[in-house]
């Protein structure tokens, strides 16, 4: 299945995509992870993207589209993939549709994970990351066993990403509501949209996500029958 997960920052797209892809054997394509990898590697793309990411702004379309379309063309995506954090704008969505149409592999579905803004701020501003191995914690819901020490690699000194600060989260939400939320209607008109509340326990979100995917698989099967 070729799937897009939509939702504001902090909705749990990455968590759900990781579990889903592990279960199904699909490729998990996180635009954020790919971009941060470019930043860490010090590439030209990473340098350009970093300024936007640190300010809580969306990376411009022309820096993202080619990267993601090239990634989708790799062999590990042939059996299915989940796009997490892409597309984020109408321009990106249209470019994705055109690229997939050329390959004869259109999207099978789009799931929007719904969550309120105040919950997004609580989730993201409390995140802490291990700069050594990338493990993620939360000051309220996922504390390390030893304060400020990573459980996974033992590194001392967990950090808050620049784009996870509360004031930046607010800017990220403004950008999401203005540029990405309109994609909900875009994909609804295309007959691809499912919506799931992300303000539930992770297991319940996953259960409702599975139900949504079942509906999409039925729709795809019916369309090809």
Kindly describe this structure.
The protein is α/β, with parallel strands linked by helices and 225 residues long. It has a domain at 2-114 and 179-218: P-loop containing nucleotide triphosphate hydrolases (Rossmann fold), CATH 3.40.50.300. The chain is 51% helix and 13% strand. It is built from 9 helices and 7 strands. The chain has helices at residues 13-24, 31-41, 44-54, 61-72, 90-103, 117-125, 166-180, 182-189, 202-224, and strands spanning 2-6, 27-30, 81-84, 109-114, 127-129, 136-138, 193-197. A 5-stranded parallel sheet has the order 2-3-1-4-7, sandwiched between helices. The chain has a two-stranded antiparallel sheet with strand order 5-6. α4 (61-72) packs parallel to α5 (90-103) and α6 crosses α7. The longest helix is centred in the C-terminal third of the chain and has 23 residues, at 202-224. The radius of gyration is 18 Å and the shape is globular. The mean pLDDT is 90.
């Amino acid at each position: 299945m070729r799937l897009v997960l939509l939702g504001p920052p902090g909705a749990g797209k990455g968590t759900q995509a990781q579990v889903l892809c592990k279960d199904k054997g699909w490729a998990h394509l996180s635009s954020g992870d790919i971009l941060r990898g470019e930043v860490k590697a010090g590439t030209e793309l990473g340098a350009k993207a970093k300024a936007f990411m640190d300010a809580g702004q969306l990376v411009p379309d022309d820096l993202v589209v080619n990267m993601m379309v090239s990634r989708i063309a790799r062999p590990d995506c042939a059996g299915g993939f989940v796009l997490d954090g892409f597309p984020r704008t109408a321009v990106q969505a249209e470019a994705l549709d055109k690229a997939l149409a050329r390959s004869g592999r259109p999207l099978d579905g789009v799931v929007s994970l719904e969550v309120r803004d105040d919950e997004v701020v609580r989730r993201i501003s409390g995140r802490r990351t291990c700069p050594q191995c990338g493990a993620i914690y939360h000051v309220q819901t996922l504390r390390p066993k030893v304060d400020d020490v990573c459980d996974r690699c033992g590194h001392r000194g967990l950090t808050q990403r620049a784009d996870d600060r509360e004031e930046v989260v607010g800017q990220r939400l403004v950008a999401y509501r203005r540029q990405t939320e309109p994609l909900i209607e875009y994909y609804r008109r295309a007959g691809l949209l499912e919506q799931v509340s992300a303000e539930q326990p992770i297991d319940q979100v996953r259960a409702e996500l599975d139900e949504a995917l079942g509906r999409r698989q039925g729709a795809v099967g019916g369309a090809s029958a």
